[in-house]
Amino acid sequence: MLTYMWPVLAGLAGLVAGVLVAARIAGRSLRAAWRPAVTGPRDVLVPLACAGAFVAFTLRFGLTPALPAYLYFAVVGVALAAIDVVEYRLPDRLTLPSYPIALALLAGAAFFEGWWSLLTAVVGMAVLWVLYALLFLLSGLIGPGAFGWGDVKLAGLLGIYLGWLGAGACFAGTFYGVLLGGLFALALVISRRGTRKTAIPFGPFMLAGALIAILVN
Questions:
Q1: Helices in 88-148 by DSSP H: which ranges?
Q2: Closest residue by Cα to residue 43 from 71, 21, 10
Q3: CB 77 within 8 A of CB 33
Q4: Is the pTM of this model over 0.70?
């Protein structure tokens, strides 16, 4: 019975975290987060996404030392995706502090599970950062606005979490993210709602690709 309770409790915790995240994105205080005020789709979708991610990661990792790190990733990832979809930006105030926080949480997990995974997390961070930096520099050939500097910084963060799971997860997460973003861009062109030069928020696709890789690898 307790085994089934943990995902339920995780979902409730994710729902609470999502309400707080949605409030901060909307510029409301944490105290005001609990007042009935749905100002847009994000006020509903963000809590649901956080709850879903909490449940998924709890089922994926169980009550292991790595779980807190991935729950933190769920909160930050949902916040970044929600902002990027609307504002076409990935704020440094969320991305950059998440590097040391993620590494610290995973270092705590490595104390119990072994240090090799932490090493591969650091390598994954460096590899994906360099890869997306090259894509950013070549974005003029791919198409203006295909990649932004915020995507590069997000890639390093994703590399930490994917690298913890190994090189296969890094490759899969990157592949899925680029595939999803490419399919979305292609759909815009086919439906004539955009062109090859239309900028799209790529962060949510990177995060979705990482989520898929984390859950299935």
A1: 92-113, 116-137, 139-142
A2: 21
A3: no
A4: yes
